[in-house]
Every structure is written in structure tokens, then in C-alpha cells.
Amino acid sequence: MSTLRYGRLADVVVRELAEIKPGENVLVIADTGTPDGLAEAYLNAAIVGKAKAVLVIEAERILTDLELPASLAGAIREADVILGLCSGIFSRSEACIAARERGARILLTDPRGMEQYLIDGIVNVDTATMLHNTALLEELIHKGENARITSDNGTDLTMSLAGRPAVTSDGRVVGPGEMDYYPGTQVSFAGVEDTINGKVVIDGSVSTLGVVTQPFTIVMENGKAIGYEGDGLDLDRYKQHIAEQNDPLLAWACHWSFGLNPRAKVSGNIYEDERYFGCLDIGWGSQDPSFGGTLGLSPHHVDVVVLHPKLVIDDVVVLENNRYNTELGFINP
Ligand SMILES: [Fe+2]
């Protein structure tokens, strides 16, 4: 029965999100924590689509465990389409980079704890309206020069985004070498690093730790975290986690992203939380070249979520209280 539950989802992922074609080598990667029936539904959908589909189930890994089993790395290197349904992040592995250079498409999610959102956020969402909002935000960011981000609980940051592209994650991979996370959508930019100043209150979640129950503040100067404010276990765990990675790049904010999926809730799973409608997701550490920033790649990356940001671009309010500005053409759920 569980495979049936995911049948429609798997069909949409295979046919619309990854546009899998007959004869393509499709690798579905699950792990021992993947919900029963989900990976099998993807395998079935790919086989029905006449792809050469293989399902690999690896041991559940933690988010910071970057080392892939050699057999899995080999399978990734040879696949045309890779559908990840697992907890371990492998997108920055050498095997993935090599596969993308060869033109492979990679579509990733971690379904644990968000099985229903995976269905709702793809099958039961108003996709046309979501893409309309996404295109509007992309245009505003693309044209924008200066941003101010505030929140009622103390966030207050300014930065330049002049010359930086808007980077959209629509949860689809249809061109050679594309990689994305899903369900979409999210629009991001990299603030010009040495112009980012102020403080940000983290009250949503942390990718590597889950839901935040005791909000804490990160103080920023010229793009870099220079201190923390607050007390409580969440801040202790966050500081400990950053220290354990021993990567200076994690002090730098590498992307500023806004969620646009009205079916996302705050579950503690970053794949859902960062798409929460009208939230801000800040990335730290490894920066994809598509952002046009100055930080570069590293093995480490952490995302943190601010639930109710106000975004002002060039003195125009774009977002407030999880509602995008309807006067600019946005359609709220
Ligand atoms: Fe991120």
C-alpha cells in the first residue's frame, strides 16, 4: 500500500521534475531511513518510463558525513539521472561533481519527517501560482541593488546585492548537469560579502540540528559572523556544531534565500523549512559558483531559517509577515 501512496508523486517526479527519457540510466538512492515504499515507487515510475533504473539502498548517514561508499560513488559517476531520497548529503562529493560535468541531472531530497509535504508540496500545490510568484521575486532580486531585512524579534541587516544574480531553485532538473533540491521553490542571492552588516535572529530551524525552540542572534560584520547573542541549548548546540566542523568558511554568509511553497511547514527538515512561504533561509559556508560570490566551495554548509522576515529591496517592501506584496503582483495563498 505504501508504494501506492507515493505513486502519483513518483510519476510527477520522473516525468515532470526530472523529465526522464526512455533508455536513460536512472539511479534512485535511498537509505535505511527512507520511508517504506517511496524509493520503490520512484523505481517503478522510472521503469514504466522505459528508463534503465536501479535502486541503491545505503546505510543512513548523518548530514555531515561526506564520505560515500565506493560502490555508490561508482554508480553515481555512471548515471544519467540521480534521484536522491536519503539523509546523507552527497551533492558536494567528487562523484557528483564528475557526474554533472558529464551532463548528469541530480535531484535531491530527504523525505524523513516530511513525507506528506513531499506529496503536498509537489502534487497538491498550485504550481502555476507558485511559479508566478517565483518569477516575480527573481526579477526583483535581479534588478535590486540594496536590501534590508528585519524582523519583529530583532533581525536588522543591510547589504548590497548589486551585480549579483537571482538564483532560483524550482525543484526541477531538465538541462545537462543541473542539480536541485525539491519540492521547490526558493529564490536566492548572495549578498555582496563585505557589505553585509547587522544582526539576524534565528527562530526557525538549523539544517544540521532541527527546529529552534530558543531563538538566538548572530551578529554580522562585513559578511562574517563575529559573535552570538542569547542563551539556551539551541545556541550552545549551534556554536558547538560550527566549531566541530573546523572550517573558517562557515563564518561567512553565502546565500540569502526566500521560501515560496505554501504547503511547507516547519518540520525540522531543512528541505521543507527553507521553502516555508515567506521565510528567509541563510546559508553559511560552501557557496555554489552560480551565486557569483567570492567565497567558493568547501565540504561544509549550514542553513538557518528566519520565520517571519521583512524584506525591503531599494525602499520597496517585497515581503512582510509571510505575505509577498500584492501591489507588486504577488499572489498569496
Ligand atoms: Fe544552503
From TrEMBL:
Signal peptide: none
InterPro entries: M29_Exopeptidase, NicX
Source taxon at top rank: Bacteria
One Pfam family this sequence matches: NicX
Keywords noted in UniProt: Metal-binding
Protein's UniProt name: Leucyl aminopeptidase
